[in-house]
Task: inverse folding
């Protein structure tokens, strides 16, 4: 009788611990990380650790190591895509990881106005804070070649 009670008690405690663990992980992964948008740039050789550190700094993420462990357990570490990301307010860790592993990058608009010449395009590119280019200092002919557009001198 005592042995059966002890085994039942042990099984019950283990079950409660496992259930508590599962509830904690579910809440940790599905709760919103931040109440504001988070901007993050994943470098070409970026890691899940760099994302976890950024989330800790920008969103005050508790336990970034847990986030890394989850990403590694899901096999998402090898599927990271580099680029610029915007995580909207209210995003949870699963959504953030999905964006970074599926390349859901942020896009920036740039309008080419009909009638602009190459100088106007270059000035507009220089004024755009979100865009960078490698055409600064090139002659109009070289810029036209780089952009593969016809140019007459």
Result:
């Amino acid at each position: 009788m005592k042995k059966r009670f002890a085994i039942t008690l042990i099984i019950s405690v283990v079950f409660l611990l496992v259930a508590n663990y599962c509830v904690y992980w579910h809440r940790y992964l599905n709760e919103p990380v931040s109440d504001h948008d988070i901007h993050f740039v994943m470098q070409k050789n970026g890691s899940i650790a760099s994302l976890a550190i950024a989330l800790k700094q920008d969103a005050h993420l508790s336990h970034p190591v847990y986030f890394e462990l989850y990403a590694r357990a899901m096999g998402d570490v090898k599927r990271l895509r580099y680029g610029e990301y915007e995580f909207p307010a209210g995003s949870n860790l699963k959504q953030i990881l999905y964006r970074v592993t599926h390349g859901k990058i942020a896009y920036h608009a740039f309008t080419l106005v009909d009638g602009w010449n190459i100088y106007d395009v270059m000035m507009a590119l220089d004024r755009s804070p979100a865009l960078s280019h490698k055409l600064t200092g090139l002659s109009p002919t070289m810029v036209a070649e780089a952009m593969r557009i016809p140019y007459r001198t």
Notes: The CA atoms of residues 29 and 93 lie 5 Å apart. The first strand starts at residue 38 and ends at 42.
